[in-house]
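Human: I would love a firmer grasp of how sequence relates to backbone shape in proteins. Take your time, and here it is.
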Amino acid sequence: MEEALPKKPPPTFWEPIFAARTMACKAYKSKPISHWILLLLSGGLMLTAFPASSLLARVYYTNGGTSKWIISWVAVAGWPLTALILFPTYFICKVSPTPLNLKLALSYLVLGFLSAADNLMYAYAYAYLPASTSSLLASSSLVFSALFGYFFVKNKLTMSMINGIVIITAAMVIIALDSNSDRYGNVTNSQYIMGFMWNILGSALHGLIFALSELVFIKYLGRRSFHVVLEQQVVVSSFAFILTTIGVALNHDFEGMANEARSFKGGKSSYYLVMIWGAITFQLGVLGGTAMLFLSSTVLTGVLNAVRVPLTGIAAVILLKDPMSGFKILSLVITFWGFGSYIYGSANVSSETS
């Protein structure tokens, strides 16, 4: 009679932690130190620049700004910053610019138009909603990115990802039901509803832009090198800048900037500082997100995107005295839970395909 094999003892509490530490050490040693420095800087930009640009947009409206076109114009006015980073990469990486054929140019033009429209929708949201509420509603772009990615790019959707989508949608409903608690005194009920709807529509369009950008890479580019990603960002942003500039000019808002600057709380210098730093922080956030996608993965980028939602809300409460009701805190927690569920599902899809 054969002797029974000894049972393997159950894993201790520390074993998964030691395993994770071993994996982290292997990952660290597999890349040069410059990779991790760039990754750290890119993550830092995502977690600081995007919340800062959201807060500056709200500061503009709080201190006397009224134009929606100006704020949408500021969001793309910093596109030369990305171009300044793109051009040296041709010499450093010893690569040539991607040939721009008619189909690719038309794709970039469409993405530029959609980006300009998206920025305008978010400008209406910032005009009528607190920054903390806007950031929470903007997190619904993950829902639309997943859905559009599933239909247009044939990306996989796991049950965990679907669960995250449902949870985030529930968080948006909670905010809608608690609309009276965080509405500014000078904002009417109809304006608040308009801001809410424009924010959701902007998030939907943002998700569509992500899916279409991925589709452009698959159909026309076929590679996701760093300079190609930067090229797309520069061309799309420059198209969006041109289209938004036309809108600002037709609306005569360039002439109104001087009047806004004179009546702005804090004076002209504060007004132009908000404009300049708004343009810089938005582009730095875009650069950070672009670099994170290239240096790591969509999962890690999604994690940081989830983390910046509560960071924006907390910063808005501390710096801008945004109202923070119990329902909004509940919505924040549920949104974070939804992000976690979605990211877990994305990680499983990534491990299956790798």
